[in-house]
Amino acid sequence: MSMTTRRGFVAGLAAAPAVLGSNKSGMKLPVTGSGAHQFEVHHDWGEVPKSIRYGNTHGVGVDAQGHVYVHHTVHATSESEDTMVVFDKKGKFVRSWGKEFKGGAHGLTIHKEGKDEFLYLCDTKRALVGKYSLQGEKVWEVGYPEQAPAYKPGADGKRIKYSPTNLAIAPNGDVYVGDGYGSSFVNVYSPKGEWKFVFGGKGKEAGQLDSPHGIAIDTRGKEPRVLVADRSNRRFQYFGLDGKHQAFGAIGDVKLPCHFDQHKGLLLVPDLEARVTLMDKENKVLAQLGDDESNTWGKLRKEPREKFVPGKFVCPHSACFDKDGNIFVVEWVEVGRVTKLKRIS
């Protein structure tokens, strides 16, 4: 499919009228997507305890049991300061923890290692990344990457900013951390949290990044590759596991890509500018979900929940599949929001 044809196809999807479904109570629910990729939209999913009020909902993941993990910054009016909220697959509250991440809760990755699963988390406020059990017990944490040549103090004694946003786990267990809110490098650690090497750095040229906000190991091809959501450059960028630039991607098909997930050859891309994109193995657009072309997201994200338009996204920040191909989306809005996209085709 040519670039011109692809853009026309996407424009047609965005222009298509919303379809309505219904829930068990008979209330109409929006449906987003088209063809083989249609989803019923369930906003404000999950039975959140009254003691918890979401701040910015930044990260989301699903474990092997189907439990859904939401990482949020905590609203100023919240009684509880727990930043990790866990639900079962039906949305019933299971547990919460993580007071230490208040104000900095960000990226969330769930990784299976042998028979066990672990959470890998990013904290933008404390500038650290760490590995934890699903119940929140710390395995290891690492802070400022002092070993990295790029982060050595300058002649004036000052250090460059470091604020990690997301991470990915390679097949050999190495951890790739995007310094998305800091200095646009990617730092690589061993499975034990030992620093190994760094690549990237701010810029627009091949191998340079500008807010590597999201990062994943793309396993859909012959060899695993590091896929970076080069957000402020409005593109994808591919690297080898050794950190060498390989290719650019999705130019013109994404606006402000935030992160990724994969399921049966599909690539899921939450985009800060009010949409979620589904792509095939060649990163061709299959559907734009919840696309709001009003360009009001910058203002709307600070508004009360009742101002949000049903079936439309405001600022998708992270998204993930469950084993059945349903999608969970969390958004960078001041009151927090978790949406389940229930697959219907």
Q: Can you walk through the features of this model?
A:
The protein is globular and about 60 Å long. The strands form six sheets. Strands 1-2-3-26-25-24 form a six-stranded antiparallel β-sheet, with no helix packed on it. The longest helix has 13 residues, at 3-15. It has helices at 3-15, 297-300; strands spanning 19-22, 28-34, 37-42, 57-62, 68-72, 84-87, 93-97, 105-113, 116-123, 128-132, 138-142, 166-169, 175-178, 185-189, 195-200, 212-218, 225-230, 235-239, 245-249, 261-263, 266-271, 275-279, 285-289, 316-321, 327-331, 338-343. The chain is mainly beta and 345 residues long. It has a domain at 51-268 and 307-320: TolB, C-terminal domain (Neuraminidase).
Question: Could you give the topology of this structure?
Answer:
Elements: H1 3-15, E1 19-22, E2 28-34, E3 37-42, E4 57-62, E5 68-72, E6 84-87, E7 93-97, E8 105-113, E9 116-123, E10 128-132, E11 138-142, E12 166-169, E13 175-178, E14 185-189, E15 195-200, E16 212-218, E17 225-230, E18 235-239, E19 245-249, E20 261-263, E21 266-271, E22 275-279, E23 285-289, H2 297-300, E24 316-321, E25 327-331, E26 338-343
Antiparallel strand pairs: 1-2, 2-3, 3-26, 4-5, 5-6, 6-7, 8-9, 9-10, 10-11, 12-13, 13-14, 14-15, 16-17, 17-18, 18-19, 20-21, 21-22, 22-23, 24-25, 25-26
Name the features:
26 strands; disordered N terminus; mainly beta; six-stranded antiparallel beta sheet
Concise account of the structure shown:
By secondary structure, this protein is mainly β. Helices cover 5% and strands 41% of the residues. The protein has a domain at 51-268 and 307-320: TolB, C-terminal domain (Neuraminidase).
